[in-house]
Please model this.
Amino acid sequence: MSWFNRNGRPSTGRRNDGPAGGLHSRETLLRLLDHERARCDRNGRQFSLVVFDLARVPGHRIAHRHLAGVLTTRLRRTDECGCLDVERVAVILPDTDLDPAWTVANDVRRATLDMLPGLTCAVYAYPSAWWAHDDRRGDSPRIHPDLRGGNGNSSGQRLPLDRPAPPQPAAPADLPERLQALLSEPVPRWKRAMDVAGAATALVLASPVMVLTALAIRLTSPGPVLFTQPRVGKDGRVFTFWKFRTMTAGAGQHKAELADQNEQTWPVFKMKRDPRVTPLGRLLRRASLDELPQLWNVLKGDMSLVGPRPPTLDEVQEYERWHVRRLDLTPGLTCIWQVSGRSLIGFADWVRMDLRYADRRSVLVDLMLLARTIPAVLSGRGAH
Model:
């Protein structure tokens, strides 16, 4: 790591003013990437990200310098490049679709073929192919979206087969199955520690209430005690969501029949007097006791004590571009929306609250929201 300067950037000997000045640090690159995503969300355009993998290239110090030099001559002034980690260099190509981005990637690979024969790369496009990489290694192009369309805009599609191939097939590299594996910021240690300690303590203290709730559900309505459902978590990962059942068995089959009575804004479904909810279920929802099994989700790491509420798969499929940004965070039991009126707040404002939390997340903010959750639960405002 001696060839990294104090900012975590390879020492290329150039000023840091974009591609012409060398490689940005990971922190700077992620900030630029976040800015470009926000810009494209607003103007409806698309940009691409090319990730060059140096894992199979000997001599990282010389390899980075050579690659930086080639990128200096191949990129536009508006393009940005930087280090994702010790082995990967990424290039942001504004206003560039997937195929033109591959033209740039292959041009760089041809220029580095002699010096960097083991160089491999992956290309991503926002928003059409953001959660799955398209890796040209001499095989057919492909996309493996985690959800329909990768971001909820359109269905996944196969790419055209006439894209120029790299100059020669490279040996398969350990490229990530999803871009988020590279770009995702890890959950802060303080937050994970708070989640484990809080969830474990709450499970112990609430265990008598949970046992009585389970018994009451079993005695008052036929069907399972727990309701499980696939939900979308951090970075689009799907996990099994747990809660006490508050509806009649098989209630999901009748959701379409009630679509015209939805009292929440698209794409979320909320109905104050939902006929599928059992009498006991109404009491559990009002007191938020149906959410107690999610403490197990928190303990497992699928959820956090504080974070955006986890959406269903069908909701995410209807997301607009800017809605997807709430999936950058670990979903939580409570959030700003939860303590500000819940179902009384429209979905657009709901997402804005989640994004505001993302910008302000800290120990103090989490403790404040947890404290505000108690009176919010006791009031029952917006709980249905």
